[in-house]
Give the backbone structure.
Amino acid sequence: MADVTRRLHLRHLRGTPTSWVRWQVGGRVRREGTGLSFWYRPLRAVLSEVPVDDRELPLLFHARTGDFADITVQATVTYRVADPALAAARLDFSVDPRTGRARSRPLDQVATLLAELAQQPALDLLARVPLAEALTTIAPVREAVSAALADEPRLADVGVAVVSARVVAIRPEPELERALQTPTREAVQVEADRATYARRAQAVEQERSIAENELQNKIELARREQQLVEQHGANSRRRVELDAAAELAAAQGKAEREKVANAAAAERARVLAGAEAEKERTLAAARADGLRAVGHAEAEAEAAKLAAYAELPPEVLRALTVRDLAGQLPQIGQLTVTPDLVSDLLARLAPTR
């Protein structure tokens, strides 16, 4: 839509590149074209604005096939105003010169005309084919609609040109669509079940292979465990034999060492015994010699003493005898001398006559 601004009693219109504008004053065309910009007086000006850009018209209509099934056709028609001057003359594209707003909706008339023109060839074509074929005849329907719109003189009379026509989808009613989809769905389900069964069979086969592998592994482990036990027993027997041999060798060595030690001890004892005997004999001989020498010396001393005593007078001998006797007596702490004791002592000391 053109941009209209106000300056006192004047108006300024600024168009767009996709809008065709015509300015008339007194029935005469002052200016017309796209992208215009001009000043005008709203009381005298007559303005028309025609959009010349491409526009999309979505269509949704119902049809009936040759076997009386209701279907829905979804299409899109792209069109544009090829002759804006002719369109402005045939349709009301006038705008308010004060505000620039459109006074009517001519594009709705164009849309209604295009919808009616597009539906007719599609309905004619779909009415001649059954439902199953109608659902797959999107290309023929599109070609029929495009051809009908391209050759339609009423569009040329209003200056409208169809750029393209597209049929997006042709669909039956939901219940009928589900019924039609059932065979395909069942076939797909059968294939899915077949794939599931094949997968399950493969899984069972893999499980069987895994179970066999596990059984073989258990058998192999049991065999290796048996070998390990046997080897462990052999190792234990060998260890016992080696320990016994080592103990036997140790006992033999110990016996040999004890035998040698006993022999050495016996020899040492024999040598020590001989040396001890020789020592005893030597000591005995030396002791005997000493005793003989001591005896000779004592005998000589006794003889000398007797010889000396023989030359002494009797009184001296008696005094010596008393001294020796006093030396042999025990220690006397207190002595009581009685006349009887003195008489007896004197009697014993008196010489015998």
